[in-house]
Amino acid sequence: MRPWNSAARSFTGTPAARRVEVPDFSLDSFDAAAARGAQMLAMIPVRSQTSMIGFRAKLPFDVLPKWAELRARPLDEQRAALTDPVRRHKLLEIARNGPYPARPGMVAGAPRWERMQILDRTLPPYRTVAEVAAERGVDPFELFVDLSLESNFDRLFAEPLTYNPGRADWLEMFRHPRSIISLADTGAHTSQACDWCAPTYFFGHWVRNEQEFTWEEAVRMFSFDAASVWGGMGGRGILREGFVADLNVFDPETVAPDIPVVTDDLPANGLRLMCEPIGMRATIVNGQPIFLDGAYTGALPGQILTAASGRGTGVSG
What we know:
Layout: E1 5-9, E2 15-19, H1 28-35, E3 39-44, E4 50-53, H2 65-71, H3 75-83, H4 85-97, E5 117-118, H5 129-136, H6 140-150, E6 157-160, H7 167-175, E7 179-181, H8 198-209, H9 215-222, H10 224-229, E8 247-250, E9 256-257, E10 261-266, E11 270-274, E12 277-278, E13 280-285, E14 288-292, E15 295-296
Parallel strand pairs: 3-7
Antiparallel strand pairs: 1-2, 1-3, 4-6, 5-6, 8-13, 9-12, 10-11, 13-14, 14-15
Helix pairs in contact: 5-6, 8-9
């Protein structure tokens, strides 16, 4: 099984990271590194890296000149064009024929309907555009536009861009002793990726629905395991007297990520994906609640963790 990224600490104690592109670079490589005295960890996501697609975000068609002209217009004008039979037919013919560029990173290329998931629920399984189009006996391009219009352009779709392993491979990665859940790419792609919901996704999908992990195992994977790898993070990752009281309180019956939405609250009205947690009762930092039932309390008890402050347990004596 090939993980995407690796982080290594060599004999010098200096951490380093590299992106894995070599097909035969498997989890066995991490065991081999350990046998030579190096600490090398596989950085694992909780799901395949996906591009979020929708009229309020970005579309595969945006790279096509006629579509680019349309997409520069307000959504009301886009609706008018797509509900006019003649204009719609011309636009969809352009979308079908392209040409589309190669797929560089998170930028969507030609739509792959058999992979593009309809985000109409909080957790998998998601149906694809191709599946629903076949059920309805319609063209996938037509269905994509119809679903978007029916939702006032709020509907989002997700297309996996990177390697999309099967269930057994995911579980092998999660359970490997030299892997750690720590990989996401959200900060660099505010309008295309929505990976910060990794904990609620893992809890709702892999723990509650799939029952592959206990709650205790999952909480440890997102707290103690991560803190241990990064030097203790100043006394975090475990509930113990003298440690930092950073806690999340959640409802195991409902915890999940909500369906993402798009906002334009970045500078210059930049787009940003939002994904609120479901079932998260409280977030406590340094012993003070900062969120209670989704509402911000106004407290600011946190601090920036530097390399020095993040080492050790934070317990004196």
